[in-house]
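Standup notes
- DV: blocked on the single-chain target, sequence here:
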Amino acid sequence: MAFTRPTGKHRKPSRARRAGARVAGTASLAAVGGVGVLAAPASAVEASAPLPSTGLSQAVEVGDPLAETLHDQADTQQLVAVKAEAQSEAERQAVVAKKKAEAKKKAESERRAAAERAERKKERERAERQRAERRSVSRSADRGTANSSGYVAPVAGATLSTGYQQSGGMWSSGSHTGVDFRAGMNTPVRSVAGGEVVEAGDGGSYGVNVVVRHADGRYSQYAHLSSTSVSVGQSVSAGERIGLSGSTGNSSGPHLHFEIRTGPDYGSDIDPVAYLRGKGVGI
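- DV (later): unblocked, structure below
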C-alpha cells in the first residue's frame, strides 16, 4: 500500500531548512554586534544537561575576554566622567574662592582707606584746635585781664624806662609829659580801661598814636606806635588791644609813651603812674 506526504502549511520543514535558519539567526546576531547573554535561573546554567550540538560556534560566552573588556571600558568611562565632574566642581569652587578673596581684599582696602581718611580728619581737627588755642592764648596775652576796678596796665610787664616830668631838652615843654614803658617792637598795647577812641593815627611828634576817652572823664594816650588796630568812634574795653608798640615820631627807639590827661589837648597831663595805681594797677 502506497503512502503520500501531506501538503499545506502544517508540513514539517526539512532538516536542511531548519539548519539554515539557525545559521542565519546566529549570523544576524554577529552582524549587529549583539552579545547573547541570556538571563536564566541559576539551575538553568548548571552543566547537568549539555546543550545539543548545532554545528555552529557560540558567539559570546559568559566569562569571555571580550565581555570583560566591554565591562572594563564602561567602568573606565564612568571613572572619567566622575573625574571630569570632580574637576569641574573644583574649578567652580576655585572661582568662588577667588571671588571671595577679591571681595575680602577690596573690603579691607576700603576699610584702610576709610581709616586713613578718618585719621587725616582727626589730624586736621587737632591742628585746628591747636591753632585756635594759640590764637586764644595770643588774644589773652594781648588783651590782659582787668582788675576789679576795670583797669589794666597798657603793656605786659609794665616796666618804666622814663618817669613822669623828667627834665630834658628832647621835650618841647622841657619835661616829660608822660611815662615811657619798656616795649620791644610790635609789642601789643592795651587800653587801660573801657572807653571811646577819639584819635587814631598820626600825632605829629607823638608819631602813630591812639587817644581814648574814659567814663571818668580822663583821656589816655598811647604814642610812638608802629600801627593801630582801632578807629575813631570805636568803643574799646579794658585790656583790648589798640595797637603795636614802635618808634614813630620823636623817638630814639621802640617803647610806649603813655599819658593820662584831664582833657583831650596837650598840656592837660597828670601823673599816669599815680592814676593807674589809684585804680589798683600795679606798676
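- Follow-up: The CA atoms of residues 168 and 174 lie 6 Å apart.
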